[in-house]
Amino acid sequence: MSDIKNIKNDYSTKLNKNLSLEEINQIKTELFGKNGLISSQFKNIGSIPEIDRKKFASDLNQIKNELQNSIANKINEIESKKINEKLEKEKIDVTLPERSFVRGKIHPVSQTIDEISSIFSEIGFSVEEGPDIENEYNNFTALNTPDNHPARDMHDTFYLDENKEILLRTHTSPVQIRTMLKDKPPFKIIAPGRTYRSDSDQTHAPMFHQVEGLHIDKDINMGHLKGCLNYFIKEFFEVEKIKMRFRPSHFPFTEPSAEVDIGYEIKDGKLVIGEGDQWLEILGCGMVHPNVLKNVKVDPSKYQGYAFGIGIDRLAMLKYGINDLRAFFDCDYRWLNHFGFDPLDVPTNYRGLSR
Ligand code: DAH
Questions:
Q1: Does residue 352 sit within a domain?
Q2: pLDDT per position as a tens digit, 189-220
Q3: Among candidates 281, 282, 294, 288, which has minimal Cα distance to 307?
Q4: Going by CA atoms, what residue is nearest to atom 8 of ligand 1?
Q5: What is the average pLDDT across 145-156?
Q6: Cβ atoms within 10 Å, residue 241
Q7: Measured in angstroms, how far is the CA atom of residue 286 from the centroid of ligand 1?
Q8: CA 258, CA 145: separation in Å to the nearest integer?
Q9: Are the beta carbons of 142 and 252 closer than 8 angstroms?
Q10: Which pTM was predicted?
Q11: Is residue 222 part of a domain?
């Protein structure tokens, strides 16, 4: 009996001192660990003579509770002291101006869209937008892509209803239709935005970005298209000269249609745009098909023009040396910190697009 009283007295004195959390934990183990002083007393209960046993057990329990309470109080005391110290240190006077800023970064895709918009606005294009959820008519039929046209299969469309009337737009081309339906010619617009196809690997993501271009007026010809794209590529890659080729292609909504490749080479492990004898496909384009103009009540004998569709993610990867498209959409803050852009550095043609 006196044994446990001694333990209690000893440890109560110890616990009254100024202790660190480690020291308290040490005491806790000494008392209540597997072979701790109190734990072993519990194992002794059986060997105590029967008349004393009940009293011993009840005293032991009381002492155990008292010691446990003192330990818990002590821990509480230390923790609240820590919190108070921290609060004292972190006190914020909200009336004072901010001294250290944590500034977010602009995603390379957003940066690229801003750059593209800036470049095209210099030559008179305005920016249009359309919804991500489109109807089948704007996405295909009005763009001269009727039912059963093979181009529909090639788009790996995400349909949103059983009747295949509502879908996630597979390209930004439906914004051509929306723009021409709501206004009268001439039209000179670009339409950047998200597009969707059921496709995913290192160079394809189910959600990606395109920018559509449309220029309709009297007397617009393929020379204008070529001049416009040549200007754009040079400005975008910030180079004086660019090698560019138009390759015949097919899109239902343009006639003739072409795909545009730009020349590049790998120099010291780095991609150099505008030189070399390698070709990289970057966009599709053509003269808007008369059927498309008819569908939006524009008279093709009076008005004609060109359209183009550029993959934005691809351009961003090329310009900023990013190898894996999927990293764009991982939402990894470290990646964004590395590849992102200063939000106050808005790209403009005269100040430089990306510095
Ligand atoms: N919409 C096409 C695609 O996603 C790209 C395109 C090609 C757009 C030619 C155009 C165009 O406006 O004229 O594959």
A1: no
A2: 999 999 999 987 777 889 999 999 999 999 99
A3: 288
A4: 309
A5: 80
A6: 9
A7: 8
A8: 17
A9: no
A10: 0.71
A11: yes
82 lies in the same domain as 129: no
Cβ < 6 A, ligand 1 pocket: 171, 173, 212, 251, 254, 284-286, 307-309
Number of domains in the chain: 2
- What is the reported pLDDT for 351? 57
Ligand 1 centre distance from Cα of residue 285 (Å): 6
Domain boundaries, position 119: 108-339
Q: State which of 125, 152, 285, 293 you would mutate to test the pocket of ligand 1, scoring each by most atoms of that ligand within 8 A of its C-beta.
A: 285
The mean pLDDT of the chain is 90
Structure tokens of 308? 């183009």
Six-digit token pair at 69? 């309470």
pLDDT confidence bin for 183, thresholds 50/70/90: very high
- Going by CA atoms, what residue is nearest to atom 3 of ligand 1? 171
The pLDDT of residue 115: 95
Q: What is the pLDDT of residues 291-300, one digit of tens each?
A: 999 999 999 9
Which CATH number goes with the domain that contains 326?
3.30.930.10
pLDDT value of position 185: 96
pLDDT of residue 346: 73
The H-assigned helical ranges of the chain are 2-16, 21-32, 37-44, 50-89, 108-122, 136-139, 150-154, 174-182, 222-237, 290-295, 312-320, 333-339
Domain assignment present for 102: no
